[in-house]
Amino acid sequence: MTEQLASGDLTDAVARAVLGTAGVAFLRPGVAQLLRASRALARVRPMGDRLGRPPRSSGVRVTRGEGAEQWHVEVYVVLHRGHRAVDVTREVRAAVTAAVRAEAGMRDPRVSVTVTGLV
Amino acid sequence: MAVNEETGPGNQDTGPGEERAAATGGNPADSPAEREPLPCGRELWSVWERWESGEADPHAAACPHCTEALNTLRHLEDVVSAARATEPREQDTDASALVGRVMDVVRLELRPGRTLPLGEEDEDAWIVEAAAARTVRAAAETLPGVRAGSCRIEVRSQDTDTTAPAGRLRRGPVGIRLEVEAPLTWHLQEVAEQVRHRVLEAAETELGMRVTVVDVTITDITEDVEGRRP
């Protein structure tokens, strides 16, 4: 199935919603991406878009299947210890759902939240 | 310490809602999610591990890409150390603790293991096996003298009566297999029960992960003089 990536604005809005949730330390850092984006490696393999903006975190992906009404938001987060992981994922889902509704007027996106680490 | 050894096809699940097709035996670096080749073709995790082990690595020494990756790794450690030094409240604690935790996260990203369900059946929440296993091992090690080793966590087919919808991962309670070393001062049956209790408690209170079974294997008896029973 062909997927459509959402606009950068929507992705950024989702990222802000996730980062504003209590218990979230940061989005999946995309360490490999960061390393590749380091100055020396960037000379070999340019990163970012054609406007020279840096690559976004790999922690948020918003897609819509071709012809499908429902959007799929995938969130990858590192959480702070001391917060119950599943409770934080529920808060993240609520925040993302609200952000998608406010930013794009879409109701009830499918939101998958994956905890990739605890610090 | 083999945390994420794979047991066969279908267990290399690395993303919510998407089954990964690869099943590649025991090498975790063969998982698609863990292929992070540098421009020279070497895998990041491999370059880092060899550097950390102190093993001679002629390729990395001569390769500009590996050299830069290692320089960036050292820089990351320096940055975290500097950030750590600016937190006065924690200055009294082990200065390397934060560095260690951040580097753990880095490693988890490169070698996440399976993706496991969090919460109830109808939720869409997940946690990577390596992160869950870390919590499980830490829970076991709250017992005096107990040291946790290999920890494998998976959704067992016998514990779920439903099959996953097409293209999605299977949800259900998990089974945990944990290996521990315990001091001679413990009664083995008792330490196994205590480990099981601590693990179940941590899975519920720290993660929110449903667990059906915790298999504890005591792999060694140690003479740790500090391993006094509570």
Architecture blueprint of SSEs:
The complex is a heterodimer of chains A (119) and B (230).
Chain A: E1 3-5, H1 8-19, E2 24-27, H2 31-37, H3 39-44, E3 60-65, E4 71-79, H4 85-104, E5 110-118
Parallel strand pairs in A: 4-5
Antiparallel strand pairs in A: 1-3, 2-4, 3-4
Helix pairs in contact in A: 1-4
Chain B: H1 44-53, H2 58-62, H3 64-85, H4 97-110, E1 115-118, E2 125-128, H5 129-140, E3 147-155, E4 174-183, H6 188-207, E5 211-222
Parallel strand pairs in B: 4-5
Antiparallel strand pairs in B: 1-2, 3-4
Helix pairs in contact in B: 1-3, 3-4, 5-6
Summarize this entry quickly:
With 119 residues, chain A is α+β, with helices and mostly antiparallel strands. In chain A, 38% of the residues lie in helices and 26% in strands.
Q: Work out the number of β strands of chain B.
A: 5
The CATH architecture of the largest domain in chain B can be given as: 2-Layer Sandwich
Distance between the termini of chain B: 27 Å
Give the count of helical stretches of chain A.
4
What is the string of helix and strand elements of chain B?
HHHHEEHEEHE
Which outline of chain A best applies?
globular
Question: Quick one: CATH superfamily of the largest domain in chain B?
Answer: Cation efflux protein, cytoplasmic domain
Give the tally of β-strands of chain A: 5
Q: Give the % helix of chain A.
A: 25-40%
Strand content of chain B: 15-25%
Counted by DSSP, the helix tally of chain B is: 6
Main β-sheet of chain B, in a few words?
3 strands, mixed
The multimeric state of the shown protein is heterodimer
Uncertain runs of chain B: 1-15, 17-34
Can you name the CATH architecture of chain A?
2-Layer Sandwich
**CATH T-level topology of chain A:** Alpha-Beta Plaits
